[in-house]
Amino acid sequence: MVLLGGAAGAATAVDVSPATTPQQADMVDVATLAPGFVLDMRYAGQDNFTGRVVPGYEAPRCYLLQPVAAALARVQRSLQAQGMALQLYDCYRPVRSVKAFVAWVHDPADQVAKPRYYPNVDKRTLLDGYIAETSGHSRGATVDLGLLDCRGGDCTALDMGTGFDRFDPLAHTASPDISAAQAHNRRLLLDAMQAEGFANYPMEWWHFTFKPEPTPDTAYDFPVR
């Protein structure tokens, strides 16, 4: 999900780093820091709100700035001790990918993924709180994820009330319209992430940003590969 650069208001102006690789940006592949992450990187495939592979995503990998990745690995290890694991949907997002999302919003004829991702929302309203011209993901400190129950051997996704990237009030973290079990599952994820310094975006149960951000004024644009 493309979110406003600030906490919930006007977008924050950032400089784009000249880094052309994760190493130059001091980012690491989180899968190398802890076992058991399930990668479901939606923008590297067609199962996302645009219905196609998003420019900038050439591989299903999760890069984050080193201290952010280390914190996420701690969350993973803590959850694994409870028989659970993290399912990753999106991590670092190139600036070019954010621009592709904004261009998609401005194309009213492209509604291919509406039934799955925004059936109750007019696409023209998505710039209000959902999609913006800057994204915390591009700063390498924001991650979209879900929670898996692995206590039975095979890992299965916990019911969160909506799927990832559902543009709908039902996806608000504290939505009053979800079941008690769904609210409990959201709280499990929220508590695990907050314990390691991640703050949730209230409009999306899956969206978390590490605080304080290591490079709050710098975005990155190297491709995910």
TrEMBL record:
Keyword terms, alphabetized: Cell wall biogenesis/degradation, Dipeptidase, Hydrolase, Metal-binding, Metalloprotease, Protease, Zinc
Binding site for Zn(2+): 137, 144, 207
Cofactor(s), by name: Zn(2+)
Broad class of enzyme this protein falls into: hydrolase
Active site: 204 (proton donor/acceptor)
InterPro entries: A_A_dipeptidase, Zn_M74/Hedgehog-like
Organism: Stenotrophomonas capsici
Gene: ddpX
Listed EC numbers: 3.4.13.22
Function text: Catalyzes hydrolysis of the D-alanyl-D-alanine dipeptide.
Protein name as annotated: D-alanyl-D-alanine dipeptidase
Pfam family, one: Peptidase_M15
